[in-house]
Design brief:
The chain is α+β, with helices and mostly antiparallel strands. It is built from ten helices and 39 strands. 15% of the residues lie in helices and 31% in strands. Bound molecules: 2-acetamido-2-deoxy-beta-D-glucopyranose (3 copies).
Length: 763
C-alpha cells in the first residue's frame, strides 16, 4: 500500500515533453471558418441532439427548445423555437429557497431525447423543480408536462446521463434539491412493468455522471461516471472512474429487491500510464460504434481523464473494449461489508451481474444485493495516450480511411479554455494536427456532438452553437504543408495541385501518415511569396516571414544560400529579418521554413534602392514609422518570372489581396502568424533563435534599467518636494486622505514625464 502511494507521488515529478499543436487557428480565423448560431433572446444552448438524417439539430437551452436546420453546410438557421419557462410559482419557490431568481430559477433544459417518430422527450431544471415534457414535432407544442424528479438534475450546472430505448427512459442523476442523492432509474416502463431504481443509497457515492451507452447485443446499459471510492481507505476522497451496468428489461425481485435493479453492478476503469499515477477522474466518454457489418463486441469506448493529483493541466485518453467490460461483469465480485467494500472472498456465483434474475430465490437476491462491485478492473486496450499541458473536458472520435486504406482514429478534444484539438495517435506517439478556437470564455456547461456523415462537430455553449468542420484541407497552402500536417483527412493531389479531402474522388492523393520520405512533393510545389522592395539608403528594413506551423524553425539567407552576417542582420523572434538599407545590404533574401527534415522556402525578397519617380508615392519615407503593420514592402505588380508568387489555392480573391502585398494579407496567407502562436503560449515560442533572443534580452534589460532609474528619480524628486513643502498651505487638508494620495501619485507621474528619460522608452 505504502509502496503504491510512493510510486503514485514520485511519478508526479516527471512529465513528458509534448509537441504543441502543429497549427493554431484563433476564433473566426478566415483560414478555418466556423458556423455560428445564436439568438439574442436565447442563451445556454448546451444540450444537443442530432436527428437521424442529420438535417435537424435539437437544442435544449434556457427556457426554450430550438429546432435548427443544419441541412446546409454553409449556414445554420432556426426552424422553430418552443418556449418552455418555469411558472411564476416555481420561480417564487426557487427564490424563496435561496437560489438566484435571474440566474438559477430558470428552466435549463438538461435532456432532449427522441421518444418516437413524432415526439421529443425533454427534461428541464425548471427553477429547481425538474419537469419533463413531450414535444409534438408537428405542431411544435409542449403536449404534456409533469414532475420529473430523478429524470434530470435540480441544479442548472450538474451533469446527468439519459438514454431512451424503445420509448423507455433510463436516467442517471441526483434526485434532490442539494444534489446529494444519486439514482439510476428506468421510467416510462412499458407493458405494465414497474419503474426500477437502485436499491441502496450507498451503491453510489457522490457520482458525477458523464455518459450512458447501450450494449447492442447484451441488452445491457452502461453508465460512465467518477465517484468517491470506498474500497481504498488509505486516501480520503479518492476518485474512481467507473462503469456501471443494468439490464434494460430488469423488473426487480419478487420479495427482495422489489422494483429495484437485480442487475446493477459496477467496476473501476483503469487509465494509468506506465510509471505514473492513474488518471482517475472521468471527464467524458465517447462510444465508437463498430464499422458496418462488424460484430457489436468491437464497440469501443474512448474516455478522456484527468487526475486528481495533477498540479498542472494534463489529460489522458484511454480506450476500453466492450468485450472487456462484459468479461469483468461476468467475473467475480467483492462483498459489501459495513459500508466498506471489503473483499471478503471473491464471490464467483454465476448469476451475479446477469440479466433475468427476477425469479431468483431470496438467498440469491440477498447475495446480489451485497455483491455489486467487481473484483477486477476494466483495463484499457492499446497504450494510454497522455497529453501534458492540456485539460480536456469533452471528446468525440471518428474513424478515417486514409489513402493507404488504413483506418485511423481521429480524436477531437475540447480544452477547458475553448480550443478544439484534432489529435491522431500513431506509433511515434500522439500528434495534435491542429487546434481551433471555438469559444473565448471558459464554459461551465458545454457539450459536443459529432456528425460523421457531415464531417462536422457541433459545440454547444452558453452563448450559442458552433459547427466546426473536422478538416479544412485548403488551409494547407503547399504540398509540403499538406504532407507535413499528416492529417488522415487531407492529402495532396498532384494533378489538381491542391490539398484535398479524402472523399474517394481522387485516387492519386499523396499522404505520409507513417513518416515522411522527402520525395512526396516536387520542388515546384512551394508556398513561395516573392516581393520586390524599394528603399532609401539608411532606412530600417523589416522583411516579414510567417511560420507555416508552430513546429517550424525559420531561417534567413541570401538568395544564393549564403549565411547573413550578424553585424548587419538581425533575425527577430517573430521571424522577420531586420537591417539597415545600404549598398552592402541591397540584394535578394529568402526565408526558409524547416520542419523535421523538410526545408521549404516560404518567402523571398529583392531589396533595391529606391530611385526614380515610380516609387515616390509608395515608399515609406519616414524610417521611424516602420512597424510590422506598415506596408514596408512593395510587391511586383507585373508578371512574375522565375521565383514567384505561387498560389496553390484556386481562390482568385486571395491572389488579389496577396498581390496588394500589404502586411495584413501576409498574415492571411499563412494562418499561424507569430501573433497567433504567441497569444496561445506556444512552447516553441520559448526557443527562438539564439541571436534574436539575445537582442530581445538586451532591450528588456535596457527597459528595466530605465524603469528603475525613472522610479528612483521620481522618488528622489517626491522626497525633495515633500520635505520642501511640509507644513505649507499648498497641501490638501490632512483629513482628506484620498486626495492627498492622488496628488502624491500625480507628483510621481509628472516627475516621470519631465524626467527627460523619454529617449530610453523604445518604440
Ligand atoms: C409517441 O410518444 C408520445 C408520448 O409518449 C405518444 O403520445 C404518441 O402516441 C407516440 N407516437 C407514436 C407514433 O408512437
Ligand atoms: C447560462 O449562460 C450564462 C451566460 O449567458 C452563463 O453565465 C451561465 O453560467 C450559464 N448557465 C448555465 C447553467 O450554463
Ligand atoms: C418469472 O416467473 C413468472 C411466473 O412465475 C413468469 O411469468 C416470468 O416470465 C418469469 N420471469 C422470468 C424473467 O423468468
Amino acid at each position: 500500500m505504502a509502496s503504491s502511494l510512493a510510486l503514485l507521488f514520485l511519478s508526479l515529478l516527471g512529465s513528458t515533453h509534448a509537441l504543441p499543436p502543429r497549427i493554431s487557428f484563433l476564433l473566426n480565423s478566415p483560414e478555418r471558418p466556423l458556423l455560428h448560431f445564436s439568438l439574442t433572446d436565447v442563451s445556454n444552448t448546451t444540450t444537443l441532439l442530432l436527428s437521424n438524417d442529420s438535417s435537424t439539430l435539437y437544442v435544449g437551452a434556457r427556457n426554450a427548445i430550438l429546432l435548427l436546420d443544419v441541412s446546409r453546410s454553409d449556414v445554420i438557421s432556426l426552424r422553430s423555437k418552443v418556449t418552455w419557462s418555469p411558472s411564476d410559482r416555481d420561480r417564487g419557490d426557487c427564490a424563496y429557497k435561496g437560489q438566484d431568481p435571474e440566474v438559477d430559477c430558470q428552466n435549463f433544459v438538461h435532456v432532449v431525447q427522441r421518444m418516437n417518430s413524432t415526439h421529443l422527450y425533454v427534461c428541464g431544471s425548471n427553477a429547481y423543480n425538474p419537469q419533463q415534457a413531450f414535444i409534438d414535432l408537428e405542431r411544435l407544442l409542449v403536449v404534456q408536462q409533469d414532475e420529473a424528479r430523478g429524470r434530470c438534475p435540480f441544479s442548472p450546472f450538474e451533469r446527468s446521463s439519459t438514454v431512451v430505448i424503445d420509448q423507455e427512459l433510463f436516467a442517471a442523476t441526483t434526485t434532490d434539491f442539494r444534489g446529494s442523492k444519486p439514482q439510476i432509474s428506468r421510467f416510462l416502463s412499458k407493458d405494465g412493468r414497474p419503474d426500477i431504481s437502485l436499491d441502496s443509497s450507498i451503491s453510489l457515492l457522490e457520482p458525477r455522471f458523464v455518459s450512458a451507452s447501450l450494449d447492442p447485443a447484451g441488452q445491457k446499459l452502461y453508465f460512465f461516471f467518477s465517484e468517491i471510492g470506498k474500497e481504498f481507505s488509505f486516501v480520503d476522497e479518492l476518485q474512481i472512474p467507473r462503469v456501471a451496468q443494468v439490464c434494460k428489461d430488469d423488473v426487480g425481485g419478487q420479495r427482495i429487491l422489489q422494483k429495484k435493479w437485480t442487475s446493477f453492478a459496477k467496476s473501476a476503469l483503469l487509465c494509468q500510464p506506465p510509471q505514473q499515477p492513474p488518471f482517475n477522474i472521468l471527464e467524458d466518454m465517447f462510444t465508437l460504434q463498430p464499422p458496418e457489418g462488424a460484430d457489436a463486441s468491437e464497440t469501443l469506448f474512448y474516455g478522456v481523464f484527468t487526475s486528481q493529483w495533477s498540479r498542472r493541466p494534463e489529460s489522458a485518453v484511454c480506450t476500453f473494449k466492450l468485450k472487456d467490460i462484459r468479461d469483468v461483469f461476468a467475473g467475480t465480485f467483492k462483498t459489501l461489508e459495513k459500508e466498506t467494500y471489503r473483499l471478503k472472498h471473491p464471490v464467483g456465483r454465476k448469476y451475479l451481474g446477469q440479466c433475468g434474475l427476477s425469479n431468483s430465490s431470496d438467498s440469491q437476491l440477498s447475495e446480489v444485493k451485497m455483491n455489486f462491485l467487481t473484483s477486477s478492473n476494466v483495463n484499457p486496450v492499446a497504450p494510454v495516450l497522455v497529453f501534458p499541458g492540456q485539460k480536456y473536458s469533452r471528446l468525440v472520435v471518428m474513424k478515417a480511411m486514409a489513402a493507404n486504406s488504413q483506418q485511423y482514429d481521429v480524436l477531437l478534444l475540447l480544452t477547458e479554455s475553448g480550443f478544439l484539438h484534432k489529435a491522431v495517435p500513431s506509433d511515434q506517439g500522439l500528434r495534435v494536427v491542429e487546434e481551433i478556437q471555438v469559444f473565448r470564455e471558459p464554459q461551465r456547461v458545454k457539450s459536443m456532438i459529432l456528425s460523421s456523415s457531415k464531417g462536422l462537430v457541433y459545440v454547444g455553449t452558453s452563448e450559442g452553437v458552433t459547427a466546426v468542420p473536422v478538416a479544412r484541407c485548403l488551409s494547407y497552402r503547399s504540398c509540403w504543408q499538406c504532407i507535413l500536417a499528416r492529417d488522415p483527412l487531407c492529402g495532396w493531389s498532384p494533378t489538381r495541385k491542391t490539398c484535398t479531402g479524402l472523399d474517394g474522388a481522387d485516387d492519386d492523393v499523396v499522404q505520409a501518415l507513417e513518416g515522411i520520405s522527402g520525395s512526396e512533393c516536387l520542388p515546384a510545389e512551394q508556398i513561395l511569396q516573392h516581393q520586390e522592395v524599394f528603399v532609401q539608403p539608411d532606412e530600417v528594413m523589416t522583411l516579414h516571414c510567417v511560420k507555416p506551423s508552430n513546429l517550424t524553425v525559420l531561417s534567413w539567407s541570401s538568395a544564393d544560400g549564403a549565411v547573413l552576417p550578424d553585424r548587419l542582420f538581425i533575425q527577430a523572434a517573430d521571424g522577420s529579418l531586420r537591417f539597415l538599407a545600404s549598398a552592402a545590404t541591397f540584394g535578394s533574401y529568402r526565408c526558409q521554413a524547416k520542419e523535421g527534415d523538410v526545408m521549404e522556402v516560404v518567402a523571398s525578397y529583392d531589396v533595391r534602392p529606391a530611385s526614380g519617380p515610380r516609387h515616390l508615392s509608395k515608399v515609406n519615407r519616414d524610417p521611424t514609422t516602420l512597424s510590422p503593420e506598415e506596408p514596408t514592402v512593395i510587391p511586383v505588380s507585373d508578371e512574375p518570372q522565375h521565383e514567384t508568387l505561387i498560389t496553390n489555392d484556386s481562390d482568385p480573391e486571395e491572389r488579389v489581396t496577396q498581390a496588394k502585398g500589404d502586411a495584413i494579407s501576409d498574415q492571411a496567407i499563412v494562418p499561424t502568424s507569430r501573433k497567433d502562436s504567441r497569444s496561445m503560449k506556444d512552447p516553441a515560442e520559448e526557443a527562438p533563435t539564439q541571436r534574436s533572443y539575445h537582442s530581445e534580452l538586451v532591450v528588456v534589460s535596457l527597459l528595466l534599467a530605465a524603469c528603475i532609474l525613472v522610479l528612483a528619480l521620481g522618488a528622489v524628486r517626491l522626497w525633495r518636494r515633500r520635505s520642501a513643502g511640509s507644513g505649507s498651505d499648498r497641501l490638501p487638508s490632512a483629513d482628506d486622505g484620498t486626495r492627498t494620495n492622488t496628488s502624491m501619485a500625480m507628483h510621481s507621474l509628472s516627475s516621470l514625464e519631465d524626467g527627460g528619460l523619454d529617449q530610453t522608452i523604445i518604440p
